[in-house]
Amino acid sequence: MTFEFPELEIENVQDYPRPPIVEAVPQRIRIELSKLTIVDTVNAVRVLETHHPPTYYIPLSDVDCDLVPVPGTSFCEWKGNARYFDVKAGSISASRAAWSYEKPVPSFSSIRDCLAFYATKMDACFVGDARVDPQAGTFYGGWITPNLRGMPKGAPGTEFW
After folding, report:
1. In sequence order, what are the beta bridge partners of 58?
2. Which tens digit of pLDDT belongs to each residue from 45-72?
């Protein structure tokens, strides 16, 4: 079997750390919605956590769409309180498709002023040239790329690992 995305190293989600860490992303990140490119950046960071595919955070300055705050929040024991947004581009409005941590805990300060997007609610997301598959389930927003190995949580029965 040939691995066709050499810019992405093979990684196993079970080898990711706990507690999670934030790291810079060397690859270009692109997101498309309503046939428009709403993100095209080389300034993203990602959060790595055991059994999770990476979650990519995009600086707000590199996001080109309308964001509408929606009611409700969630709490992450590592990052703090998240708020959610509808994402509007062209004729499409994707409900609760992005989230941010406006006041993350100090160890996650690098995700302040950034957004993460649910791949399942976008037309397409890319890490380098690799098209992303969304993490299973409806809560987590990790992005699965062809270089990932191991068993990511998110599917029914894995939520409380």
Report:
1. 115
2. 999 999 999 999 999 999 999 999 999 9
Tell me the two tokens of residue 122: 């976008």
- Which domains, ranges and CATH numbers included, belong to the chain? 19-145 (2.170.150.40)
5/128 Cα distance (integer angstroms):
8
For residue 131, give Cα distances in angstroms to 8, 32, 110.
Answer: 12, 11, 25
Residues of the chain with pLDDT under 70: 1-3, 159, 161
Whole-angstrom CA distances from 104 to 60, 80, 82, 116 are: 15, 5, 8, 13
Token couple for 19: 């507690």
The residues, any chain, with a CB within 8 Å of residue 1's CB and separated by 6 or more, are none
One-character DSSP codes across 33-89 = ETTEEEEEES--EEEE-TTS--EEEEEGGGB-SEEEEEEEEEEETTTEEEEEEEEEE
